[in-house]
Automatic annotation (TrEMBL):
Pfam families: Alpha_L_fucos. It comes from the Eukaryota. InterPro entries: Galactose-bd-like_sf, GH, Glyco_hydro_29, Glyco_hydro_29_N. Its EC number is 3.2.1.51. Residues 1-21 form the signal peptide. This is alpha-L-fucosidase. One of its GO terms (biological process) is glycoside catabolic process. One of its GO terms (cellular component) is lysosome. Residues 69-331 form the Glycoside hydrolase family 29 N-terminal domain. Keywords: Glycosidase, Hydrolase, Signal.
Length: 480
């Protein structure tokens, strides 16, 4: 009797162990994002504020010879800027603390070319401080852009002296204004600019030392990369991975590589799409905000292609964001919310080619969570997941298909198709990443929606999908 009990216990232990073995999570497909990169990716829309000497000279690139007395915004209110950011649904706002003209929006101890020499706030003002305080009060995280190209400072062109100056300014900004979530570098430089070697690696390591949880943006990352254009459009194929060793910041000819990413990339450096709500980056009286249709197109081409949208909204010469721009931001956010508020896949029954185990069920793509996902068993012939919509919903038309990978374990999908009711292909594409949005040419209805996927590296790593959704965009062509 005792032996029978022992055998039964052993059998139970073996059975439990076997069951447990089938429910382990799949191995990550390297490289994978850090926690701060994941947090950034889930923001989806963030905001840029270009404000400075160019705001008062009606220029885009100042020459560095501007008189500080020109800087005198009579009504500057950074809290109103945050109203604009909140209107767009942005959870992070990046301020241009110094543009190419070298004028500093904080009273830097390293140069006299700053707000300290201006009449604004009687020379005692600090735009960076007011910006950071207003952002935190509004629950918005802070980002800073410090232009490497400085057309004012006499040290520019002297390699050691200027790099020391630049690092010292970084220290002022990253030690004097609290937590900074993103630091923005670029390689912009005029054709006739002085020859200057930037010590980017020294800058990056200094940033890491001062703010360990920050994301660093540049052509080369190391955390976030430029998407290769300034029109808010990622590549139709868009990998979060690149090889950083193949990139020189500011180099001409790297735009396509940055736009598409690299399926064989060894570094996780997802793209950020920067674009202005107006034609220019700085405020100009004769410019107005892009129409809603254009902003939605930008959204689909950025957020809908595995990117974060960095939307610039420039305050005017009074120190306020134009009310018309804020109204357009509200209109934009309301439209995005209206499109995605209702998931026409809700209530569907999900089936798949296979399932790794119960914790990775096909139904996970419908639960609205980022931390759950469908994981199939390995296959050499591609993978599929199918949603069977409730009979009452089958006639409800949709014109947007949303697919999301569980990118915490890497980016895997290299090709995919979407079928409705069997043979009808309504969408096809390459990469998915954090989010892929297909805006269909015409609304369609159907009982079943199947997503077929092929993964990178010969199908050796199964796709991991966290969401599949169906939506109706009433703002699409032919819908209004």
């Amino acid at each position: 009797m005792a032996m029978s009990c022992a055998l039964a216990a052993a059998a139970l232990i073996f059975t439990t162990a076997a069951a447990t073995a089938t429910t382990t999570a799949p191995l990550p497909m390297l490289p994978i994002p850090t926690a701060t990169q994941l947090k950034w990716q889930r923001r989806e829309v963030i905001m840029f504020f270009h404000f400075g000497m160019n705001t008062f000279t009606d220029r885009e690139w100042g020459d560095g010879g501007e008189d500080p007395s020109l800087f005198d915004p009579p009504s500057l209110d950074a809290s109103q800027w945050m109203t604009a950011a909140a209107a767009a649904g942005a959870s992070l706002a990046v301020l241009v603390a110094k543009h190419h003209d070298g004028f500093c929006l904080w009273p830097s101890s390293l140069t006299r070319h700053s707000v300290r020499a201006s009449p604004w706030r009687a020379g005692r003002g600090d735009v960076v401080r007011e910006f950071a305080a207003a952002a935190r009060s509004a629950g918005i995280d802070v980002g800073i852009y410090l232009s490497p190209w400085d057309r004012h400072d006499r040290r520019y062109g002297l390699e050691v002296e200027y790099n020391e100056y630049y690092v010292s300014q970084l220290r002022e900004l990253l030690t004097g204004y609290g937590s900074v979530s993103e630091i923005w570098f670029d390689g912009a430089k005029g054709k006739n600019a002085k020859n200057m070697t930037y010590h980017f690696e020294e800058w990056f390591q200094t940033v890491r030392q001062l703010q360990s949880s920050i994301n660093i943006f540049s052509d080369d990352g190391p955390d976030l990369r430029w998407v290769g254009d300034e029109n808010g459009s990622a590549g139709y194929t868009c990998w979060s991975t690149i090889n950083r060793s193949m990139i020189t910041i500011g180099q001409v000819g790297i735009e396509k590589y940055l736009n598409l990413g690299d399926p064989k990339g060894t570094d996780w450096v997802p793209p950020e799409c920067d674009v202005s709500i107006r034609q220019g980056w700085f405020w100009h009286k004769n410019e107005t905000a892009k129409p809603l249709a254009k902003l939605l197109e930008i959204y689909y081409n950025s957020v809908g292609r595995n990117c974060v949208l960095l939307l610039n909204v420039p305050p005017n010469s009074t120190g306020l964001v134009d009310e018309a721009d804020i109204a357009r931001l509200r209109e934009f956010r309301a439209a995005v919310d209206a499109i995605f508020a209702t998931d026409l896949a809700a209530g569907s029954a999900a089936t798949a080619c296979s399932v790794r185990g119960e914790p990775f069920a096909a139904a996970n793509v419908l639960d609205g969570r980022d931390d759950t996902y469908w994981a199939p068993k390995t296959s050499k012939n591609g993978y599929w997941i199918e949603l069977r919509r409730p009979a009452a919903m089958a006639g409800e038309k949709f014109n947007v298909v949303r697919i999301e990978e569980h990118v915490a374990l890497g980016q895997r999908v290299e090709r995919h198709k979407v079928f409705v009711d069997g043979a009808v292909v309504v969408a096809n594409g390459t990469t998915v990443g954090h989010k892929r949005l297909h805006r269909l040419a015409h609304p369609v209805a159907g009982e079943t929606v199947r997503v077929w996927l092929a993964t990178r590296r010969g199908g050796g790593a199964p796709p991991l999908l966290s969401a599949v959704g169906l939506h109706l965009d009433p703002f699409a062509a032919g819908m209004m």
